[in-house]
Write a structure and sequence with these properties.
alpha+beta, single chain, 13 helices
C-alpha cells in the first residue's frame, strides 16, 4: 500500500498552530470548570472533568515531544501527514464530547465549541477529513441528546455561561484561524520568491552556457587571426620600409595584433576565477565617471582576501550598481562603497545621495525593462542582470530606500562558490546547486 503523502510546508504550519491551540484549549477548559464550580455556584464532578482534561494535556505533551522534541519550531524535523492532524482533531472532538457529557450535554452552552472544531478542520484539512470531523461532531452531539449527566449549575447563572461560551468560541475562531492564515500566507510568499529566484538563476545559467560556447568558438579564430597578423607584420617589415603604404600596412597589422591580444586577455579573464577583494573592487570601479566621486571604504585586512568567483561578471554587476548610484546622486555628491566581511562572506554596501524612491517604485525596481531614468538613459536591465549574476554565485542583493534620504544597495557574496557535494549516484537538482555547478564549469573551462 502506498505511503500517505506528506505536504511538509502546509502540514508543518498546521501542526505547529494546532499544538498551540490545544494548549490554550486545555487551559480554557480547566478555567471554565473552575469558574463554573466556584463563581457560578455549580456542583460539578471536578475529578472526572479534570481526568478528561488530563487526556488532552497528556496527548499534547506527546505531540510536542514527537514533532518538537528538540524545541526548534522553525524548520520541520519530521514529516507531518494529514491523517495525523485528523486523528488529533478527532481526539479533541472526543474530549469535548466527554466534557459535555459530564456537564449537561445539550444544555451546556459550550456545545458551540463543536463549531470551532469543524471550522478548524475546514481550514487545516482536505474536504474528506473536514466532512469526517463534521460527521463525528454531529454524532457526538446526537449521543448527548440521548445520554448525559445533568448540569449542576443554578438556572440563573446559565445565561452567564452561554455568554462566556460565545466569547470563547468567537475568540478561538477569530484569533487562531487568522494566525494560521497569516502563517500560511508567509510560507506561500517564501515559496513564490523561491520560484522567482529559481527562474532568474536558470536564465543566468543559460547566459553562462552561452558565454562558455562563445569563449570556445572565439578562441580558435582569434588565434588564427593573431598568427596571420604576426606573419603579415613580419613580411611587411622585411619589405621596403621607405614605402609609405607598406609602413601604414605594418601599423595596421600591429593594431590587429594588439586588439586580438586584448580580446584574448578578456577571454582569459572570463575563464579564471581567482582574485582578491581589492582587485574585484578595482575592476568594478574601472572607467566609471569622475563625478559624482566614489569613496571606497575597504579595511586593509579585507583588501587582500582571496576570492573564488567569476571576477569579470561580478565586477560588471558591481559597476552597474555604482553607475546607478552615480546617476541618482547630485554632481557634487559622493557615492560611498563600503566593504565588510570575513573569510566566508563579503558584504558590499553602495549608498547614493539621491532623492530616494517611494515604496511603489521600490517594489518594482529590478524588474526587466523597468527604469526610473529619463528616456534614452537606460533600458532597465542593469539592476536585473546584476541581481541575476549575484544570486547566481550564491549571493544576495537587497535595496533599502527612503524618500529624501537616498538609496542603499547591499550586496552579500560568498568568497568562494560552494562545491557541489552529494552522495555517489545521487543528483542534486536544486536550482542553486545547478547554477553554481554550471558557473564553476564556465569559469574553469580552458579557452
Amino acid at each position: 500500500m502506498a505511503r500517505p503523502t506528506a505536504i511538509p510546508e502546509r502540514n508543518w504550519v498546521n501542526i505547529h498552530w494546532l499544538a498551540r491551540l490545544r494548549w490554550a484549549q486545555t487551559a480554557g477548559q480547566a478555567m471554565t470548570v473552575l469558574v463554573g464550580q466556584f463563581l457560578l455556584e455549580g456542583a460539578l464532578p471536578i475529578a472526572s472533568l479534570f481526568g478528561v482534561i488530563g487526556i488532552g494535556l497528556v496527548s499534547n505533551l506527546l505531540l510536542e515531544l514527537y514533532f518538537f522534541g528538540d524545541r526548534r519550531r522553525e524548520t520541520p524535523t519530521r514529516n507531518v501527514y494529514e491523517w495525523q492532524l485528523a486523528v488529533v482533531m478527532m481526539l479533541d472532538v472526543g474530549i469535548l464530547t466527554g466534557l459535555l457529557y459530564l456537564t449537561g450535554g445539550p444544555d451546556n452552552p459550550f456545545g458551540l465549541l463543536y463549531v470551532v472544531q469543524i471550522a478548524l478542520a475546514t481550514v487545516l484539512l482536505r474536504a474528506k477529513w473536514a466532512w469526517l470531523l463534521g460527521a463525528l461532531s454531529f454524532v457526538g452531539f446526537g449521543l448527548l441528546l440521548v445520554v448525559h449527566q445533568p448540569l449542576q449549575i443554578p438556572a440563573d447563572n446559565r445565561a452567564v455561561g452561554a455568554w462566556v461560551a460565545l466569547g470563547v468560541a468567537s475568540a478561538f475562531v477569530v484569533h487562531f484561524l487568522q494566525r494560521i492564515h497569516v502563517a500560511l500566507g508567509e510560507r506561500e510568499a517564501e515559496l513564490t520568491e523561491a520560484r522567482h529566484l529559481a527562474a532568474r538563476q536558470e536564465r543566468l545559467a543559460s547566459l553562462a552556457t552561452m558565454a562558455a560556447g562563445a569563449a570556445h568558438e572565439l578562441s580558435t579564430p582569434l588565434g588564427t587571426v593573431a598568427l596571420a597578423a604576426k606573419e603579415l607584420e613580419r613580411a611587411l617589415t622585411k619589405a621596403d620600409a621607405s614605402a609609405t603604404n607598406l609602413s601604414e600596412l605594418a601599423a595596421d597589422a600591429r593594431l590587429i595584433r594588439e586588439q586580438v591580444g586584448r580580446c584574448r586577455a578578456i577571454l582569459e579573464q572570463m575563464a579564471q576565477g581567482a582574485g582578491t577583494v581589492g582587485e574585484l573592487l578595482e575592476e568594478a570601479l574601472l572607467n566609471i565617471r569622475a563625478a559624482p566621486t566614489v569613496h571606497r571604504d575597504v579595511p586593509s585586512e579585507l583588501a587582500n582576501l582571496p576570492l573564488r568567483l567569476p571576477p569579470r561578471a561580478v565586477s560588471q554587476a558591481l559597476r552597474s550598481l555604482v553607475t546607478n548610484a552615480q546617476d541618482a546622486s547630485p554632481h557634487n555628491a559622493t557615492v560611498v562603497v563600503a566593504v565588510r566581511g570575513d573569510q566566508a562572506t563579503l558584504s558590499i554596501s553602495i549608498r547614493d545621495r539621491g532623492p530616494g524612491m517611494p515604496s511603489e517604485i521600490l517594489a518594482r525596481i529590478g524588474e526587466p525593462f523597468f527604469t526610473t531614468k529619463a528616456p534614452g538613459r537606460g533600458m532597465g536591465l542593469g539592476l536585473f542582470l546584476a541581481r541575476a549574476v549575484i544570486e547566481g554565485v550564491g549571493g544576495n542583493l537587497l535595496i533599502d530606500s527612503i524618500p529624501g534620504d537616498g538609496t542603499e544597495v547591499r550586496v552579500t557574496l560568498p568568497t568562494e562558490i560552494a562545491p557541489v557535494e552529494r552522495p555517489v549516484g545521487a543528483r542534486d537538482t536544486s536550482p542553486q546547486r545547478d547554477t553554481e555547478a554550471r558557473i564553476a564549469a564556465v569559469v574553469s573551462k580552458p579557452t
